[in-house]
Amino acid sequence: MQNTSMADSATSSLLVILLLVSSLLCICSSQGSTNSLRVTLTHIDADRDDLSPLQIIKRSIQRGKQRHRQFLNGLLMSTQASSGLRTPVEGGDGEFRMGLSIGTPPVPFLAIMDTGSDLIWTQCKPCTACFKQPTPIFDPAQSSSFANVSCSSPLCKKWADTKCGSSCLYSNSYGDGTSTEGFLATETFNFGGSDSESSVPDLGFGCGVNNGGPGLNDGAGIVGLGRGPLSLVSQLHTRQFSYCLTSIGGTNGSSSLFIGSAPSSVQVSNASTTPLLQNPVLPTFYYISLVGISVGRNRLPIPPSWFQLTSDGSGGLIVDSGTTVTLLTEEAYNVLRRYFLAETKLALSGSDNSGLDLCFEIPNGRAKQIEVPELTFHFEGLDLALPPENYMIVDEKMGLACLAMAPAGSFSTFGNIQQQNMLVIHNLEQKTMSFIPTDCGKL
């Protein structure tokens, strides 16, 4: 058995997903492109000091599993739909907020960053139904740069679920139960900088006047980064985007989203890549090919077909910013669990308070010295060896160390805990993805 020691810094970095820097977005022309945008991200539970590490994770897991179930339900509806009609399936309530502003003069608001959806939208006056948000609701009548989108506009035709009224009407629903209805429009969005280069004019978005569901954890809308034509990355015609998420509980720096060039401080030219796949049934999502998993030196007896994206749209693995822990198909997870348990020399916990399936008891005073097996994900063309803090959640108060993975349905999702302290590059031009180990807080 090959073990990895948990570093002294791991305990503090494995406490909670708290990104304590206020949201803003700025132009970063020093990174090699005048079209590069940098967004500072804040986790939605950043202010929950009243919760323990595993309580925070448990909340995130509940959101992630609900999101995953909605993806699955949408997949079933899409494959059963007749005459080629497919029901849009979108992510919704993600895990990270970003700050931006809209209109002239600019009105600031917080939005959820979501790689699992396509539409940019915010709540607008006059509201038929709007949920509570901490910032003023945008009033189009007060903006000199606002313009409605007509039904004949190419922008209107790019959204699948539109109707014609006095303007181009849209509707959309999300995995967490949030829904929005309104009209498509164009507006100037400001991304936090102090000069005109921070503004993007004529950006298509949804002006939501009839919105329902649980709300968006202080968000007033969603910024979709998916592969559809109305997402932020598609409208900006960017060749790539990337994000870098700091360690759980990390207080050194903040997480960032980069639209356009990657930060110049990260060496990306020789990075290994894995192909981006596209599911014709769920075309929004970013799929990659997982071909195996190793625990220690043991390649698990899991046939690649268990992770394969099939012609009917089932199977495969989605890389998702809005799901916290990695969710594997149940049969694959059961094999991983059995091998990981066999190679971990810690007492199995009987507690069911963590929200995770596989937890171990931490010996008193030894949280920093516990040893766990190495864990490697084998993607097509890329072997990703995870550091322990990317798959073990340690809660000293509860005396538990838990594997940050869980069983799911007929497809898998690679969660954001597994992606922390990595620059995750989505190269849309070359259709590849890279995971580059990075101290995200120092970018």
Question: Which secondary structure elements does this structure contain, and how are they paired or packed?
Answer:
Elements: E1 3-5, H1 8-13, E2 25-27, E3 37-43, H2 53-80, E4 96-102, E5 107-114, E6 120-123, E7 147-148, H3 154-157, E8 162-164, E9 168-173, E10 179-190, E11 199-212, E12 221-224, H4 232-235, E13 240-244, E14 255-259, E15 274-277, E16 287-288, E17 290-295, E18 298-299, E19 317-319, E20 326-329, H5 330-343, E21 359-361, E22 371-373, E23 375-379, E24 382-386, E25 392-395, E26 400-403, E27 405-408, E28 412-414, H6 416-419, E29 422-427, E30 432-437
Parallel strand pairs: 5-12, 6-11, 19-28, 20-27
Antiparallel strand pairs: 1-22, 2-3, 3-4, 3-14, 4-5, 4-10, 6-12, 7-10, 8-9, 9-10, 10-11, 13-14, 13-29, 15-16, 15-30, 16-19, 17-18, 17-23, 21-26, 23-24, 25-26, 29-30
